[in-house]
Design brief:
With 304 residues, this protein is α+β, with helices and mostly antiparallel strands. The protein contains 8 helices and 12 strands. Strands 1, 2, 3, 4 and 7 form a 5-stranded antiparallel sheet that branches. It has a 4-stranded antiparallel sheet with strand order 6-5-8-9, with no helix packed on it. The protein has a 3-stranded mixed sheet with strand order 10-12-11. Helix 4 packs across helix 5 and helix 7 crosses helix 8.
Length: 304
Amino acid sequence: MRSLPYITASDAVIAEEWRTTDGPLGDELPGWDYDTSIEVSRVVRVDVRRTLADCGFDPTDRLAVHHRYSGGGSRTRHSGAVVHLEPDEMTGWASAEATFVIPGSELAGVVELETTLLLRSARQPAPFVAHRVGSILWRDRKRVELEGDGGLLPIAPVHFSEQGLPADAAWYLSLDAGSWEAPAMGSLLVLLNLENESVADAVRQSGDPAAAGMLWDALMIDVVSDLVGRALDDEEFDTQPLVAEFDVDTSTAVLVCNLIRSFLALPGEEVEQAAARLRTERRTDPSRFRALVQSGLRFPRSRR
């Protein structure tokens, strides 16, 4: 984190852990998909009186706690909640409790939660003292992997020999690309081969967890490579699909765009720009395209 040109708060801020409706929010949120919104909450306690004194402010200056979130590969932050601090007259402490909902449509792969302590009142400039409204006096960030090892897509464990598929294969991605605007959950299906011993152990959670994790990572490489690749090869694929309402299933096109935004777009790059670049990469060097997918998904992930 870069150093700020003014005095900031130190141990006068006590931030409790983030929570969801199911309990404490960990580093992963298995089972999440793009139609799932996340309700988060947090309590932050601030010794306002001490912070004002330590940072060179007047006792009448005002502070606020601001919660923001950003989803996936996008660098756009959204405001979740702002709580103005009203210190207790006796202790000088203030408690800021906030709860807000993050729409699933604004997320892709990961979510970063940021909490900042801000100056609410403008001041005359002084050496090493913050004076602008919104000056950050304290900051905390948390990154949460949304997919975890479970993946995004519907999965069906089957016996490949009964499906006319290679009996020793690991998985097969079934995609009905007749309409990219069709609901993704009705167009996509990942078939897992129970006749493959490693896959069967991973499905039943009866084998080595690290080996299973590596297997699911490899599956995600194939899913993203195949799904995004098929979209890039199709001239009818639109990188600006219609955005579904919250009560309508996310389309396959929206899912593809979310995957590009989350894992494959460069910082500041729009989905349309990323798709054009990736299309060229795929046509001229398919191996490099797959390497870009591996890089975007950080494959293989460390499991130590």
